Amino acid sequence: MHSAQELASQIEVLASLPTVYDRIREQLESPTGSAFEVARLVSADPALTARVLRLVNSAMYGHRGEIDNIVHAVQILGLQQVHDLVLAMSLHAVFTGIRPAQLDMKRFWRDSVLCALASRAITQHTGRPGAERMFVIGLLADIGHLVMFQTTPVLADTARQSTAQTGEALHLAERRIIGCDFAEVGAALMDQWRVPATFAGAIGTQTLPRLGGEHAGDAATLNLARCIVEADALDASSAHTGACVDPCVWKLLDITPDEIAPIREEAELNLAAWLALFFPAHAH
Predict the structure, then answer these.
(1) Where would I find the HDOD domain in this sequence (predicted)?
(2) Per-residue b/e over 11-40, b at no fewer than 16 CB within 10 Å?
(3) Mean per-residue pLDDT for 103-127?
(4) Which residues contact 162 (CB under 8 A, 6 or more apart)?
(5) CA 216, 123, 239: angle at the middle one, nearest 5?
(6) Each residue of 232-273: pLDDT tens digit?
(7) Please, which residues have CB within 8 angstroms of residue 199's CB and are 6 or more apart in sequence?
(8) 8-state DSSP, 180
(9) Between the CA of residue 218 and those of 106, 120, 190, what are the distances in Å?
(10) Using one digit for the tens of pLDDT, what is the confidence trace for 187-213?
C-alpha cells in the first residue's frame, strides 16, 4: 500500500513549479512584496506575459483590450491573483513530460477547466468571496489522479474499473486498492509545492467536505463542481445530478439542488474560451 506523501514525492522529481512562480510566491509572502517586482518577474517570461495580458483583457475581468502593460495588469489583478494565475498557467508546462498511458490527457485538462469554471460559478452564485481563487483550486482539484496514473498506473486503473463495475465511490476504491485517494495525493502535492494552505485544505477534503474545518465551504464547492463534471461526462440531467450530491454539500453552501442547472450552464458556456486560454494545445 502507498501513502499520499510517497506518491507526491515521486512525482515532484519529474514535475516542479517554475522558478518564476517561487519568486512571485516570495513577493506575496514578504511584508515588502511589490507589484512592480512581480511585474518585472512576469515580464521576464514573454509567454507568461502574453497570457496574463490575454487574461486581464478577457471577459472574466471586463477590461476588453484596454490593458497593454504588465505593471498595469498586476495592479488591477493584485499580487494574490497574479500568484494564483501564474500557478494555473504553470500547470501545463509542469506536466508536459507526464502523459500516463491510461489517462486521456485532453479529457483530463478539459474536465479540470470545467471543474475550475464550476467552482467559480458556485462561489459567485453563493455570494462567497474568492471566486477567482476557487477557479484555480478547481483547476487543481483532480491533480492527484495525474500523480496516481503516473506513479501507480495499474492500481489506479484497477480502482477506476472497480468503481465502474460496482458503483463504489472512486475515492473509497482507491483507498482500498492503493492505500490513499486522489484528494489526499493532491493535497500532499500542494504541500510539497508550498502553495497557500487553502489549496491543500480544500483539495484534501473535497470527498468529505464536512471534515474540512475552516476549508469546508471550499471543499463543498469542489465536491459539487466534480459532480457537475461527472454529469457532463455522462450527459446526465442536472436534476439527476442534484439528487446524487451529498446533502451536507447543499447545507454547507446554503443552496438547493434546483440551483445546479444555472451553475452548470454558466460553466459549460465558458468552457471553450477558457480551455483555449489555459491549455491551447487541448482546446480543439
Answers:
(1) 14-209
(2) beeebebbebbebbbebbeeeeeebebbbe
(3) 93
(4) 168, 173, 177
(5) 90
(6) 998 999 998 988 899 999 999 999 999 999 999 999 998 988
(7) 136, 137, 140, 190
(8) S
(9) 26, 10, 15
(10) 999 998 888 899 999 999 999 999 999
Domains, the chain, with CATH or none = 4-282 (1.10.3210.10)
**Cα torsion at 106, 96, 135, 201 (round to 10°)?**
120
Angle subtended by helix axes 4-12 and 182-193, to nearest 10: 50
pTM of the model: 0.90
| Among 75, 77, 93, 87, CA closest to 116 | 87
Task: Say how far apart CA 92 and CA 69 lie, in whole Å.
Answer: 24
Whole-Å CA distances, 94 to 25, 27, 163, 229, 248: 17, 21, 29, 23, 35
Radius of gyration of the chain (CA): 18
The set of cell numbers assigned to 6 is 510517497
pLDDT of residue 65: 67
Angle, helices 131-140 vs 105-125, to 10°: value is 150
Residue 165: Cβ-neighbour burial (10 angstroms; 0-12, 13-18, 19+): exposed
276: its cell numbers? 483555449
Q: Given this model, what pLDDT does residue 282 score?
A: 60
Cα of 198 vs its chain's centroid, Å: 12
Phi, psi of 150 (to 5 degrees): -85, -40
Q: List the end-to-end C-alpha distance of the chain, in Å, as a whole number.
A: 38
**In a 3-state reduction of DSSP, which class is residue 135?**
helix
Nearby residues of 107 by Cβ (< 8 Å), 6 or more positions away: none
Distance CA 245, CA 242 (A): 5
Hunting for cell 440531467 — which residue is that? 237
